[in-house]
Amino acid sequence: MEIDRTIVQSFPLFSRLCEKDLDSLLSCAVLRRVAQGDTVFKQGESAQSFFLLLNGRVKIMPVSMDGHQFIMRLVNPGEVFGFVKAILRSEYPATAQTATEVLLLGWTIDAWTNFVERHAHLNLNAMQIAGQRLGEAQLRIREMSTQFVKRRLANVVLRLAQQAGRNEGDGILIDFPISRKDIAEMTGTTLHNVSRILSSWEARGVVTNGREKLIVRDMIRLSALANGSLT
Amino acid sequence: MEIDRTIVQSFPLFSRLCEKDLDSLLSCAVLRRVAQGDTVFKQGESAQSFFLLLNGRVKIMPVSMDGHQFIMRLVNPGEVFGFVKAILRSEYPATAQTATEVLLLGWTIDAWTNFVERHAHLNLNAMQIAGQRLGEAQLRIREMSTQFVKRRLANVVLRLAQQAGRNEGDGILIDFPISRKDIAEMTGTTLHNVSRILSSWEARGVVTNGREKLIVRDMIRLSALANGSLT
DNA sequence: CGCTGTATTGACAACGTTCAACGGTTGTGG
DNA sequence: CCACAACCGTTGAACGTTGTCAATACAGCG
């Protein structure tokens, strides 16, 4: 199967690679299709590969011993996942489950380290990925420590609209099926609360709700809700 | 001033360096003493240096626009801080304030990158630092999303005891002055709540409280509180 | 047409924060 | 050495937020 190289080249991890190098990197990648709801890897497996998401969405979900589910990260097209853990040759700390049918490229960590030896500047790219994840994680910790559920939810929906939104003229549709439970697990609350709050926002014209569907109608007011200047 | 090289060598970032290399690295480090309550760097400054804490404790505190204070990380002796951001040549995302008088070593990022060019394996060490921070951050997110304040507090105190505890025979003393406000800002709650919960634990013989002081008397029961098998 | 998974809503209880008052300790300056 | 201020900690009460329980509705699917 043929991959569009210009697309892959535009992804942060591979920036500043020449065509030849990109070819050799792509030649040792494995293309994989995964159906909706299946898992790419499972928590606890040894991290021998990492993945680049070409298409669709993937949920990164640690499972805790006390049964509480939640979603650590939502992977959008063009992002890598399983990357940091693979470099460190440890175990995946979470399960990667698809939210849609997805298309992805996989590399073994051996192939990658091999390649990096000849392209040392990729170390910096890798560090940038790790740094970005760390920044996102710390931002989220701050939100969880200091903000009420309403505001956290506004931030989650805002990010969804920015990263997974498709402009439909009269609003921004979240571009994959997402349930209240999913949103609750991204926000750190219950689906009941999410339902209540989204309903109240719908009454005020900020969003439109549907079954596994969410449309943002008023980004301005949503932003205001997210930064606390509106309740 | 003379630094004990065997101590520095035992720190993760510098593992697998020979004596000679260690000397050359130490020769371009700056030793610095900072008084209790002063700041090592401030949020928003461009990250031109990173630091290795030799002695004392440092609090990493992002400040949000809405005034909410909190403590993102507590740095223990032997740990580096400001490291990831310095490598990425961005701005410090938080303020580093000392909880005690501290002694630390500082390197400019230029000296570091220079040194890394001749010791490529340090890239992996750096990645390990970043990976560890990321893991800690994600663990904390999970705690904040799914656990009640009591249990989160138990986890915070447990970590304090493990990382900053000194065994006193009849209990484990947290080895630096820490206020209820500090603990609250590490847990994501108010000092009132911390006071209440710690008082109830004191009544049950789990801890002993004092002014800017905390002694863990019963690690077993504290662990049970932390993993939810006890309320 | 019943089954399953998703969503909405109300009532209620539990939890946590805010407000307020008070007591104790430390440090300072007269 | 004492008075005083500043800071830290504790505790109670009221309030608001959030989670839990329960009932219902609705859509997709065999």
Outline the fold blueprint.
Two copies of one chain form a homodimer.
Chain A: H1 5-9, H2 19-27, E1 30-34, E2 39-41, E3 49-55, E4 58-61, E5 73-75, E6 80-81, H3 83-87, E7 95-98, E8 102-108, H4 109-117, H5 122-146, H6 149-164, E9 165-167, E10 172-174, H7 180-187, H8 191-203, E11 207-210, E12 213-216, H9 219-226
Chain A binds a DNA duplex (30 and 30 nucleotides) through helix 8.
Structure explained in plain terms:
With 231 residues, chain A is an alpha+beta fold. Chain A has helices at residues 5-9, 19-27, 83-87, 109-117, 122-146, 149-164, 180-187, 191-203, 219-226, and strands spanning 30-34, 39-41, 49-55, 58-61, 73-75, 80-81, 95-98, 102-108, 165-167, 172-174, 207-210, 213-216. In chain A, the strands form 3 sheets. The first copy, chain A, has a 4-stranded antiparallel β-sheet. The first copy, chain A, has a 4-stranded antiparallel β-sheet with strand order 2-7-4-5, with no helix packed on it. In chain A, strand 11 (207-210) and strand 12 (213-216) form a beta hairpin. In chain A, helix 6 (149-164) packs across helix 7 (180-187) and helix 6 crosses helix 9. The termini of chain A are far apart. The mean pLDDT of chain A is 93. The interface between A and B is medium-sized, with 34 and 34 residues. Chain A binds a DNA duplex (30 and 30 nucleotides) through helix 8.
